[in-house]
Amino acid sequence: MIERWKLRALITAMALMIAAPLPVHAASAKSPTTTKSSAKSKNSLRQFTGVVTALDKTSITVEKGGKKPKTMVFEKHAEMRTTGDVEKDARVTVYYREDGGHTVAHRVVVKGETPDKG
Asked: Distance (Å, rounded) from C-alpha 112 to C-alpha 118?
């Protein structure tokens, strides 16, 4: 059984914790930093390099090989810019953003072919 003086001390400590106001400036100082960093990451372009496996008027599919192969389908942005001739089997780097759960390509750069050795 807890002694009365220990019980009173515990109740007093809990009452002080409940009655103590939270520092408002500390909570508000962290909020804008979190918002800015998450907004920055959403606004920045990401990139994906691979080979075009499918291409149509509204989308482009790019496949990356290697140890961790991955295929991504990009919707074409209305003002998408391209450098080079984007066609099937071309090696490209796609600069894209996540928008509402969709990957939207904003720029596609076709990589030059490496010269054959020999």
From this structure: 18
Q: Find, among 96, 88, 100, 82, the residue nearest to 61 by Cα.
A: 88
> CA dist 100 to 71, 97, 103, 104, 115, Å?
19, 10, 8, 10, 41
Tell me the CATH number for domain 46-110.
2.40.50.320
Query: Structure pTM?
Result: 0.60
In this structure, of 34-48, 58-72, 102-116, the range with the lowest mean pLDDT score is: 34-48
Which residue matches tokens 């409940």? 18
Q: What gap in Å lies between CA 82 and CA 102, rounded to an integer?
A: 20
Q: Return the higher-pLDDT residue of 65 and 25.
A: 65
Q: Where are the domains of the chain?
A: 4-43, 46-110
Give the model's confidence band at 116: pLDDT under 50 very low, under 70 low, under 90 confident, else very high.
Answer: low
Beta strands in 56-113 (DSSP E): 59-64, 70-83, 91-99, 102-110
